[in-house]
Amino acid sequence: MSVRKIPKNRITKDGRSYAFIVTEYGLDGKRHQHQSKAYMTYDEAYRAEQAYLNKYKDIDVNPHITFYQAYLKVYDYKKDKIRATTLKTYRDRIHFMKLFWDVELVDLDADIYQRWRNQMNKTDLSDRYKTDIQKLIKTICNYAEKQWDFNLRKFYNKLEPFKTPGAIKKEMDVYKPEEFYKFISVVNDIQMRCLYKALYYCGLRRGEARGLQWKNVDLDNRRIYIKHQVQNNVETNNDNDWYICACKTSTSHRTVPIPEDLYEELSEFKKQLKKYKTYRDTWFVFGDKNPIGTHKMNNWKNAYCKKAGIKQIRLHDFRHSCVSALINAKSPVPTISALVGHSTPTETLDTYSHMFEESLEGVTDYFDKIYEENKQKNHQNNGD
After folding, report:
1. CA–CA distance, 302 with 285 (Å, rounded to integer)
2. Residue from 128, 212, 172 nearest 325 by CA
3. Any alpha helices (H) in the chain, and if so which ranges?
4. Which of 37, 63, 219, 345 is deepest in the core (most CB within 10 A)?
């Protein structure tokens, strides 16, 4: 890097004639020259050179890498390390960030971030979804810091969850126990009864239920072992184009107890299956040699809802219904968190905060009871 006089034909009208030039290696591995803007004096150009050095020191990649170039690097690095569904999420979310695309990472600041937030707030997207989109920005910043020694912490700390003042959080659709029993009473297929009961009683995710094999169901000890899940190819979303993959998080790998109602159904169902000579423990509980399709799960669920005359809920809402029932039963938060495979009890509290608020009704009953007992005892003693 050096300060030098620029050619006469490039000297500015106000006489700026000094610049510094740096040779860098770009993302293509080739050498590139970067020339600064023009300065009035040698000393001014030299000070700018030193500031540039301090700004880009310790960066192991082209310091002028843009946000979108960094995204491509992150995508390429992650493509054999994360699920295809997560990669599709990256591809979907990067299109919400076009304001950042041509901005160099070192130029990310609070001003451009606020302009992006203003853009996002003009959309009809929920606060939660906008916050999820923002996670990709954090992923790119973290990668740039760890892999290339960029210092983006000041910008990173500006990233805050989206929260519309006065916004009312959308309530989850859940089945109360009496609604679930009304639903399940019209399900005449034993495999589908087992499926919906597993979703409701065990809080399974759809992919976890699809991936459940008989070898992971221990009827003797009444335990289900969640080892993996099944997902469709995100490009085709065809039920015949599926693959087995890891669960959503490390804590999703868990052991789930089987309640009596589900135990009886699974025992009878397995007894029926064992009559087939081709039966193997590698068969999928909800399916056969192949897992049940998501379209069948949804279509049959919709038909049963209509037949039972109750509201339609999503398959994932059976999981929410499970948590809701346990909260109303005053089950400990760590127990609920472990059952549904949340990373921490805090995640359970954050996700179902409104349900916990509703469950506060009646928690003072115990204290009211002992207060009345003590009051009566004192009254009797005073009377004596």
Report:
1. 21
2. 172
3. 42-56, 67-78, 84-93, 110-121, 127-148, 153-156, 177-184, 190-202, 206-211, 260-273, 294-308, 316-328, 333-340, 345-351, 353-358, 365-383
4. 63
In a domain, 382, yes or no: no
Q: Quick one: angle between helices 316-328 and 190-202, nearest 10?
A: 50
> Looking at the 3D structure of the chain, how many domains does it have?
3
220 and 349 part of one domain = yes
Q: What is the pLDDT of residue 75?
A: 94
What are the pLDDT digits (tens) for 11-30? 888 888 888 887 765 444 45
Would you say residue 169 lies in a domain?
A: no
**Segments in the chain below pLDDT 50:** 26-29
Same domain? For 338 and 203 the reply is: yes
Q: Which pLDDT does position 363 carry in this prediction?
A: 56
CA angle 313, 319, 323 (to 5 degrees): 115
What's the pLDDT at 29? 47
Asked if 71 and 122 sit in the same domain, the reply is yes
Q: Which residues contact 186 (CB under 8 A, 6 or more apart)?
A: 304, 307, 308
Question: How high is the pLDDT of residue 30?
Answer: 52
Q: Is residue 188 one of the residues assigned to a domain? A: yes
Q: What angle is formed at CA 10 by the lines to CA 5 and CA 13, rounded to 5 degrees?
A: 105
Residue 72 structural domain: 67-156
* 262 and 326 fall within a common domain: yes
Q: For residue 343, count other CB atoms closer than 10 A to its CB.
A: 13
Q: Report the first-to-last Cα separation within the chain, whole angstroms.
A: 99
Structure tokens at 88: 């599709």
Residue 24 has what pLDDT? 62
Q: What pLDDT does 261 receive?
A: 95
Q: Has residue 225 been placed in a domain?
A: yes
